[in-house]
Design goal:
The chain is mainly β. It has 2 domains: about 650 residues, Maltoporin, Chain A, CATH 2.40.170; about 120 residues, no CATH class. It has 16 helices and 43 strands. The strands form 6 sheets. It has a 22-stranded antiparallel β-barrel. Helix 14 packs parallel to helix 15 and helix 15 packs across helix 16. The two termini are about 15 Å apart.
């Protein structure tokens, strides 16, 4: 059955935009006597409404947009939205905690401040905390073929959804019905080589009287992109090459000459190994060690399955069930196998043969171990979600209801290559006791150090630790909405919600670490915890007068965790004023909160090391700029000690918004919105890089007593300047979560759409979205001055972003040109800005017949790779721009059976 309706220009334009106008098949009638359009549920409200536009701005990305604008998946679409201004660590960022996961950061407030929903329901967090600190939702396991649309609400929405919705809400809405079957095949790669990928999707659905079914199977394979695949970062230039083999007298600081060793091993690391002479002697080195062992894009293989069913039990009741399962293997390489004598203690030993304290070092090459991929780290992930319940009309009333249960589980296994505990004895022989200073004594054979390894020998001194991590969440919810009573201007609509939920997580490291099986520091403790959540809320829509509509919402959430209870009441209010049929003026005020991340609460004392570290203090003391500093970006980086805190308070947020929407016709609309978000008691783990920057600044200024400086100096522990080994180097960085004083950010969003319809030349649809952050300030401690984060050269967030697209639909052809402009960001040295950059994507879709389409998509048409040499290797803005260059795909879709 078809429902014919008419819309006023504002509602028509909004719904046309949300549906992704695709051509002449979509007709929006405009008549003098406007009928009531059908109600839709838009993210940010539980009350169905006739118009997409409301008191808060909502951005809608359709499934068609994902394909035409060059996005490979849902994450791609979200990360490229203009509201996603925050920097997040991606797969190219190095030895991070979560390279197998994808996160976004709306408004630059971090991945934990955006609530991600699937069909309005919560999903389990990724089991491992982002940066080892904050919990977040992974966006990697949702088949794009069944995505109907993605809605992004910017600003606080805790009064509707509870905790986490401080920066905004992302609601991924899947299709409920499907007629027939679709087979989709997609394959592509990069023009510079590497990172090829392919995808197969099989999607279908069928209706059987009262039963509607839908399913999707998605298989994806992606090859890695190695640093060696890009000539601009295939070798380190302008700095000392990486030590491959060295022997140093610790007392004198001089390297022992190795004779012909370097020449005998010249073929290692692709024939780039040779003797390097420094101020303190010579050693074997290569400029390609880092690039040889570095993937800037992970290798990935994933399989995702989704199924849903809706059964009309009666005219007023529908039973539903949805299930999602995905498994994923990701692998990367961020540093090869290296060895330093006695690395777990003082990194040197007493050489009985030479009567000297010595430090030996060795970097094992790909040629010795049988290929670089033999030292890959990989993750096996499994994500599942099950929802079922009933929805319909409450008997005897006009109220709608939905009662449902959702269970979500995420498991991951981390397989990490490690040196075994026998590696010291392999190179040094048996330990012969300790000297009077407690230093280990060896009588090593120098040939053992200089002789190349065989793959079998490599296997005898290396292995892999396996950690098991999981998270889960269960929620029962009951919602209802309907008309409460009628005012002169219209009916007052009401929605109520009640939720009960429980979630938990566990991080279980390999027990062999603490048993001394690996050449790794002990203290890898199990971290685990649970919490319960209870919530009740109410929302109302009030027609004040014919041109003014108000919304009010209030909600109380209570969390039980770690032997304590934390309850928060949040509320929001919105006004819509329509002085004319084509004009909407809107405003909102909302409070929000975020319960402390479970990782912050339950984190056991854990040690580890950063993938790389820059010692700004030693660079400054040596008078070396960061780009050329011997102590910059050294890998592996400094050790850290991290602990949690059960005394953290919930964050408190406040957001305001004011906007205007003008839609003179169904083919044109433009909106301007101002937004402001403030957070008090922000829970944050201290940034190691920021600590090192602050420490350098404090020490160089001689300030050791101000609140920030006193705290910083106590957290960055160093070896004494007169230590025999590693004098003045960083010994350990101590980090833990705190409730920071405050942070605030504000800005503007502009969106526009215009559709040109012609009889002979088809339709042309133009869209543009622009977001600009106007101000961002933070204060870590109450006594500190307010920091201007927007003009801070350590802040790599985007200051503004622009997306614009033009789509031309003509007969069997549909072509889209998509432009993305990124603002300036600080360079790697943190002393200037990189210029803005514009990237262009293009796609063409041709309908072969009524059942088949063929499309070609090209991302980064002009093959741009942003260069930045100021921070040293790898000579591009890591995490901000991709080094892949031009990427192209060919896609074939065939529909049958419907």
């Amino acid at each position: 059955m078809q429902t014919k309706f008419t819309l006023n220009p504002l509602a028509a334009g909004a719904i046309a935009l949300s549906c992704g106008v695709a051509g002449p098949n979509l007709a929006l009638a405009q008549e003098t006597a406007a009928a009531t359009p059908p109600a839709v549920v838009i993210t940010g409200s539980r009350i169905p409404r006739a118009s997409v536009e409301g008191p808060s701005a909502v951005t809608v990305i359709t499934g068609d947009d994902i394909a035409k604008q060059g996005y490979r998946n849902v994450f791609d679409a979200l990360t490229n939205q203009t509201q996603n201004s925050g920097f997040v660590q991606g797969a190219d960022f190095g030895n991070t905690f979560t390279p197998s996961a994808n996160a976004i950061s709306l408004r630059g407030l971090g991945p934990n401040h955006t609530l991600v929903l699937l069909n309005g329901r919560r999903m389990a967090d990724f089991p491992v905390a982002y940066e080892g600190t904050v919990n977040f939702t992974n966006l990697a396991n949702i088949p794009s073929s069944v995505v109907d649309r993605v809605e992004i609400l910017s600003g606080g929405a805790s009064a509707v959804y509870g905790s986490d919705a401080i920066a905004g809400v992302v609601n991924i809405i899947l299709k409920r019905q499907y007629d027939g079957y679709d087979v989709n095949v997609k394959a592509g790669g990069t023009s510079r080589g590497g990172a090829s990928d392919k995808r197969l999707q099989f999607t279908g659905g069928k209706s059987f009287d009262q039963l509607n079914t839908l399913f999707s199977v998605e298989l994806l394979e992606r090859e890695p992109l190695w640093s060696a695949d890009r000539d601009f970062m295939a070798t380190r230039t302008g700095v000392a090459p990486t030590l491959v083999l060295g022997r140093r007298n610790v007392s004198t600081g001089q390297y022992v000459d190795l004779g012909n060793t370097c020449a005998n091993n010249a073929d290692l690391f692709g024939g780039t190994t040779g003797k390097y002479t420094a101020r303190n002697g010579s050693y074997c080195a290569s400029p390609t060690v880092g690039p040889s062992y570095w993937t800037t894009m992970t290798k990935n293989s994933s399989q995702n399955v989704f199924g849903s069913a809706n059964y009309e039990l009666s005219p007023t009741t529908t039973l539903y069930a949805e299930a999602l399962f995905g498994q994923n293997r990701s692998s990367n390489n961020t540093r090869g196998p290296s060895w330093t004598s006695r690395s777990l203690t003082d990194s040197y030993f007493w050489n009985q043969n030479t009567s000297a304290y010595e430090a030996w070092s060795r970097y094992i090459s790909p040629e010795e171990m049988g290929g670089v991929e033999r030292y890959n780290r990989y993750w096996d992930d499994q994500a599942s979600s099950l929802s079922f319940g009933a929805r319909g009309v409450i008997p005897g009333t006009s109220w709608n209801y939905e009662a449902g249960y959702t269970a979500s589980l995420y498991k991951t296994q981390d397989h990490r290559p490690r040196a075994l505990a026998n590696i010291d004895s392999f190179f040094l022989g048996p330990q012969l006791g300790v000297d009077q200073n407690g230093v280990a004594i060896f009588a090593p054979n120098p040939a053992r150090l200089t002789q190349r390894l065989t793959p079998a020998e490599f296997d005898s001194i290396t292995g892999a630790s396996v950690s098991d991590d999981k998270s889960w969440t269960n929620t029962f919810s009951l919602t209802a909405n309907g008309e409460a009573f009628t005012l002169p201007a219209g009916p007052v609509k009401l929605a109520v919600v009640a939720e009960v939920g429980k979630q938990g997580f566990s991080n279980v490291p390999d027990s062999r670490i603490n048993a001394g099986y690996f050449n790794a520091a002990t203290g890898a403790d199990v971290t685990a915890g649970t919490r319960k959540r209870y919530a009740v809320g109410v929302e109302t829509n009030i027609p004040v007068i014919a041109s003014v509509n108000a919304t009010l919402a209030g909600r109380y959430d209570r969390y039980n965790f770690a032997g304590r209870t934390d309850g928060k009441f949040t509320y929001n209010g919105g006004l819509e004023w329509r002085p004319a049929q084509q004009l909407l003026v809107r405003g909102t005020y909302a409070t929000s909160f975020r319960a402390p991340d479970m990782n912050y609460i339950y984190k056991a004392s854990g040690t580890g090391y950063y993938s790389s570290t820059t010692d700004y203090y030693r660079c400054a003391k040596a008078g070396q700029p960061v780009a050329d500093c011997d102590y910059a970006n050294y890998s592996p980086g400094a050790d850290y000690l991290q602990t949690g805190s059960k005394d953290l308070r919930s964050e408190r947020g406040r957001s305001t918004g004011l906007g205007i929407v003008w839609s003179p016709s169904a083919d044109f609309d433009v909106s301007l919105d101002y937004w402001n978000i403030k957070i008090s008691d922000l829970v944050t783990n201290l940034s190691a890089d920021q600590l090192l920057r602050d420490e350098a600044d404090c020490r160089l200024r001689g300030d050791l007593t101000s609140p920030t400086c006193a705290d910083t100096i106590a957290r960055v522990l160093r070896y004494p300047d007169n230590a025999l080994n590693r004098p003045g180097e960083i010994k350990q960085i101590r980090v833990n979560p705190i409730n920071a004083a405050s942070t605030s950010v504000d800005g503007i969003d502009i969106a526009a759409k215009y559709v040109l319809r012609t009889a002979s030349y088809g339709n042309v649809i133009t869209k543009a979205n622009y977001s600009k952050t106007l101000n961002k300030h933070s204060r870590q401690f109450a006594g500190d001055p307010l920091n201007d984060d927007l003009n801070d050269l350590t802040n790599t967030d985007w200051r503004d972003k622009l997306n614009a697209s033009v789509t031309w639909n003509l007969d069997k052809w549909s072509s889209t040109l998509f432009l993305q402009r990124y603002s300036k960001i600080p360079n790697g040295a943190g002393d200037a800005y990189l210029t803005p950059t514009t990237l262009v994507n293009g796609s063409v879709v041709y309908r072969l017949n009524e059942n088949a389409t063929l499309s070609v998509a090209v991302n980064n048409l002009f093959n741009k790779v942003k260069s930045d040499t100021t921070g040293g290797w790898p000579y591009y803005p890591v995490g901000s721009y991709s080094p892949a260059g031009r990427q192209a795909w060919v896609e074939l879709n065939y529909h049958f059976g419907g």
